[in-house]
Amino acid sequence: MARKPKAPLPREVTKRRLARWQQERRRRRITLTVGVTVILAIVVVIIYGYYATSIAPGRVRLATVGGTHLTSSDYLTTLRLSPTTQTSPRDAITAMVNYELIRQGAAELGLQVSHSEIMQEMRESFTNEEEEELSDAEFQRRYAETLNYLKVTAEQFEGAIGTQLLALKIEEHLNGTVPEVGTPLPHVHLRSVDVHTEPQAQQVMQRLEDGEDFASVTEEFDGGDLGWLAEGMMSLEVEQWTFAQATANATEYFPRDEGYTVVQVVEPAEERPLADEAMRQGLQDNALAHWFEVQWDEKVTWQADDARLETIYMWAMDQIGTGSD
User: Fold this and answer.
1) What are the helix (H) ranges across the chain?
2) Dihedral of CA 74/79/81/84: which sign?
3) Sheet harboring 222-230: ordered strands across?
């Protein structure tokens, strides 16, 4: 039986089919690529959303203190441990920085707090006035309730108690360094006038610089002669300026909690004996506050601006409200 001859391949049809197959494969490949890309994009959005709302906020740097970076996670812990700081974004960051300054300062001074001291302080704080002493079981119950209420760990809570005790030890150390009455110390003779607004401060400052009698100025505003003040008795900003003045009648104004204070150097700085026990007590009363100001000036090298802080504050308060970490 003779073989049936093969029909010749239709060249043009084959080329068209090949082109069509290639186009179909290309379309399938493009469709698959687009599909995978869309799926990946969705996954990335989900992951980023979780990171942005749950993980990233806890890692935002809010301050740098002595080379240590404090993050929004530290900020959240501060808010939980100190409910009184929850009324203001800035109050919480101030407390957070102060805690770190205390820890660093205590280490530099060689001051430590033992675990037994922390436990004793906690027992006393958990004990009501009408109670004599807590049993171990009752102490543990109240401790657990406190941790649950604040939503903090035992390590965080005990760390906060330890920091408070370190602050007391720093204050005790500083009070011990205040010289005795009669010891020569730098003093400066000052007058001051308290006003409500910055324009008033500028006006008073100009009047004093023009030579107007100080008494006539204080008839309108609160003020007086402060006498000779020893170094360490005023705010750091005022002190740095006043002790840098070499001539009398130098005048400058400074912000205070409510309004402004105009300060005039009556007589420039000189060494004088510490006058009396009242002034020595004043130095002791101001020692810790003055120490904090110096530490802030030397160690706090960066803080978040108000916009970032407000965002993190809202995030932190949301975490506290929902009981999340």
Assistant:
1) 11-50, 72-81, 89-109, 115-126, 136-150, 154-177, 198-209, 214-218, 236-242, 277-299, 306-322
2) positive
3) 222-230, 184-195, 260-273, 251-255
Note the pLDDT tens digit of each residue in 129-144: 899 889 999 999 999 9
Say if 146 falls within a structural domain: yes
Residue 251 maps to a domain: yes
The rounded distance, in Å, linking the Cα atoms of 188 and 240 is 11
Strand, helix or coil at 243?
coil
Residue (of 73, 74, 77) closest to 58 by Cα position: 73
| Boundaries of domain holding 244 | 184-273
Summarised one tens digit per residue, pLDDT across range 93-112 is: 999 999 999 999 999 999 99
Q: What is the CATH number of the domain that holds 201?
A: 3.10.50.40
Tell me how far apart the alpha carbons of residues 50 and 48 are, in angstroms, rounded to a whole number: 5
Starting at the edge strand that comes first in sequence, how are the strands of the sheet with 68-71 ordered? Answer: 68-71, 61-65, 300-303
Q: pLDDT at residue 214 above 50?
A: yes
Has residue 204 got a pLDDT over 80? yes
* Closest alpha carbon to 80 in 194, 156, 145, 26: 156
Residue 256, pLDDT above cutoff 50: yes
Same domain, 168 and 191: no
In a domain, 238, yes or no: yes
Which phi and psi angles does 111 have, rounded to 5°? -95, 140
Whether 267 and 188 have beta carbons less than 8 Å apart is answered as yes
pLDDT of residue 132: 86
Query: H/E element holding 222?
Result: strand 222-230
Examine the pLDDT at 89 and tell me if it is beyond 50.
Answer: yes
pTM over 0.70: yes
Q: Which amino acid is at 40?
A: L
